[in-house]
Amino acid sequence: MKYLSILAITFLFIWGCESEPPADPNYVEEINQWHQRRISRLKAEDGWLNLVGRTWLKPGENKFGSAKDNDVVIESDKVPAYMGSFLFKDSLVIMKVNEGVEVLLNGKPVKEIRMIDDQKPDMTVFQYSTVKWNLIIRDTLYGVRFRDLESPLVKNFPGIERYPVSPKWKFTARFQQYIPPKEIIVPNVLGQMNKELSPGAVVFQYSEKFYKIDALDEGDKLFLIFADRTSGEETYGGGRFLYVDKPDSNGNIILDFNKAYNPPCVFTKFATCPLPPKQNYLNLRIEAGEKNFGH
To answer: Where do the H-state alpha helices sit in the chain?
Structure first.
């Protein structure tokens, strides 16, 4: 009997050490509100859920419309079969609209206009019915991306499965500054290898081991692109994203993986997502934040 009592006490001690204390309800609510804002951004007019097309332009004339024999086919029954052409030469793209087709820019009809790309603050966005489009540039590629403001995915979006909110995945990390900033290679889903400058790494400790993630400078935030041992299983194989505030005066950073989220490529094949640099693949299961979506 005494032996059984000792076993029971030992089991309770081990269970108590390994079990996770419940998260503060206020903290859980904070993360849930953050996630709801995230869903609202995905559903917004300039969010990722309404993308319905993306075509890279070839030099010369690129006819566009819903007909299958166009160079740029808009997969929508809301637009005419033949709408006009994108004329691409060097770094210039001119859109010409066919007679009888009313394409709007800022609510006013246009017939022939130079398209301003998404790398510039005055990007031009055109509209016909509920379909919008704009010029995008990805390294040497010039393309046109289309949105449908009444996309079925926006209307029927089921939400994103997440791991339970857990304070054990929230760290006070250290910022390891690179002087000068280090050049790193950031691949993307198009197979391009982009050179970026990293101002430093975010270093955190978990289970007596240290891990670090090279960061990118995004103005008042640091942007982290990482993968871990859940990637390709419970989470997206192309990694996840996370924004953190820049370090305080002591070099500390609050790193909260409960806010780790999916790249837009999880929701649409028409996005051009960066992938984690090879040094940002962590030999650790980060069971926090968003899980994969769909297939």
So the answer is: 2-18, 25-43, 152-155
